[in-house]
Amino acid sequence: MTQVYGRVALIGLGLIASSMAHAMRRAGLAGEITGYARTAATRDIAREVGFCDRVCDTAAAAATGADLVVLCVPVGAMAEVAAEIAPVLAPGATVSDVGSVKAAVIAAVGPHLPAGVHFIPAHPLAGTEHSGPRSGFAELFDNRWCILVPGDADRAAVDRLRALWAGMGANVDEMDAEHHDLVLAVTSHTPHLIAYTMVGVADDLRRVTDSEVIKYSAAGFRDFTRIAASDPTMWRDVFLTNKEATLDILGRFTEELFALQRAIRMGDGDHLHAYFTRTRAIRRGIIEAGQDTAAPDFGRSPAKAP
Ligand code: NAP
Predict the structure, then answer these.
(1) Looking at residue 220, what is its pLDDT?
(2) The domain 179-288 belongs to what CATH superfamily?
(3) Which of 62, 144, 162, 208 has its CB surrounded by the most CB atoms within 10 Å?
(4) pLDDT of 302 over the 50 cut
(5) 111 Cα–ligand 1 center, Å
C-alpha cells in the first residue's frame, strides 16, 4: 500500500484514534502519525502503547505541519479542539472528524477553520463498547462502512481521504449530513437508547434480583447489556446533538410498539406473525449484504455500529 498523507495528526486518542493509527501503520498509509489527548494519563498510555510516532502535549503542537488532522473526541468537544488547532493549520491541509453525528459537528467545527483548509467530515460505522487508547486494534474498520460528508469540498482532497479509509479496510460512501443523521438515528442511535432503557428496566424490576438477571440473561438481554455499556459521554453527546432525527425515529418506534402491545392484548396472532415475517426478511437482507458478522474481536468484544 502506498502512503496517502505525509503527516496525520489525531486529536483525541481513544478507541477510534488508536484503531486508525494501528490501521494506518498496518498499510503504511501515513509518513508520520502525531497525537494529542486532553489528559496526561491518556498521553502517557498512548506513548507506552506506541501507536503514534509522537504524542504532543497540546493539540496545536500535534496539528502543526499536518496534511490531515482528524478530530477523534466526543461530539460535544469538537468545537473546542477545532478552535485550538485552527491557528496552525496550513493552507491545503485537510481537517476531518469521526463523530457519530454530522450536522452538529459541521456547525460546530466549520466556523473555526481558516480559508484554504479542506473540511471533510467522516463517520466510520465501527466500534466496540470499549474506550481509551488501549482499546484500539488495526482490524476495527475491515469491511465496515465509513461515510464521508464532503459537501462541496475539493474533489481531489475528498478522493485522498477516501483512499485513506479504503486503505484502513473500510468501504467508503458519501452522503449529506441530514441524511446521515437520519440513517444513523434508525440504525444505531435509537437502538442504543432502547438498549439503555431495557437494561434500566431490568435494573428497576426489584422482583427480579440482580443475580437472576445475570444468571438467566439470554442472548437478547446480554446483547442489550453490551450495548448499554458504551461510553456515557459519547452517547450523551450523540443524543444531545442528533435530537430531531432521534426523536422522529423514537416517535415512530413508540407507535409500532403500541400497535404490537394492542395485538398482544387482543390476541391478534395474524398481526404478530405478519410483523415478525417482515422483520425476518430485513435480517436476511443484512446477511446477504455481508454486514451480519461483528468485526473480529481479537480478545476484545463484538463490534457494534455506533
Ligand atoms: P474514547 O475512546 O472515549 O476517546 C475519546 C478521546 O477524546 C480521549 O482521548 C479523550 O481524552 C478525548 N476527550 C474527551 N473529552 C474531551 C474534551 N472535552 N476535550 C478534549 N478531548 C476530549 O472515544 P472514541 O470511542 O474513540 O470516540 C471518539 C469519537 O468517535 C466520538 O465523537 C464518537 O462519537 C465517534 N465514534 C465512536 C465510535 C465507538 O463505537 N466508540 C464509533 C464511531 C465513531 P482523555 O482520555 O484524555 O480524557
Answers:
(1) 78
(2) 6-phosphogluconate dehydrogenase C-terminal like domain (1.10.3660.10)
(3) 62
(4) no
(5) 21
**Closest C-alpha among 62, 5, 60, 64 to residue 30:** 5
Of 67, 154, 160, 171, nearest in space to 118 by CA: 154
CATH of domain 5-175: 3.40.50.720
pLDDT of residue 295: 44
Q: What is the pLDDT of residue 297?
A: 37
Which residues are paired to 147 by β-bridges?
A: 123, 173
Q: How many angstroms does the Cα of residue 117 sit away from the middle of ligand 1?
A: 23
Dist. CA 5 → ligand 1 center (Å): 23
**Ligand 1 atom closest to Cα of residue 13:** 9
Nearest Cα residue to atom 21 of ligand 1: 38
Q: Please, what's the b/e burial string for 201-235 (b: 16 or more CB within 10 A of its CB; e: otherwise)?
A: ebeeeeeeeeeeeeeeeeeebeebbbbbebbeebb
Question: Is residue 35 within 8 Å of residue 89, measured between CB atoms?
Answer: no
pLDDT digits (tens, 9 = 90+) for 99-154: 999 999 999 999 999 999 999 999 999 999 899 999 999 999 999 999 999 999 99
Best mutation site among 47, 100, 105, 227 for ligand 1, i.e. most ligand atoms within 8 A of its Cβ? 100
Q: Which three cell numbers stand for residue 153?
A: 469540498
What ranges do the domains of the chain cover?
5-175, 179-288
pLDDT at residue 102 in the model: 98
Q: Report which protein residue has its CA nearest ligand 1's atom 31.
A: 74
> Whose Cα sits closest to atom 20 in ligand 1?
38
Inter-residue contact 93 to 68 (CB < 8 Å) = yes
Reported as a single tens digit per residue, the pLDDT across 7-55 is 999 999 999 999 999 999 999 999 999 999 999 999 999 999 999 999 9
Distance of CA 74 from the midpoint of ligand 1 (Å): 4
> What pTM, to 2 d.p., does this model score?
0.91
State residue 286's pLDDT score: 80
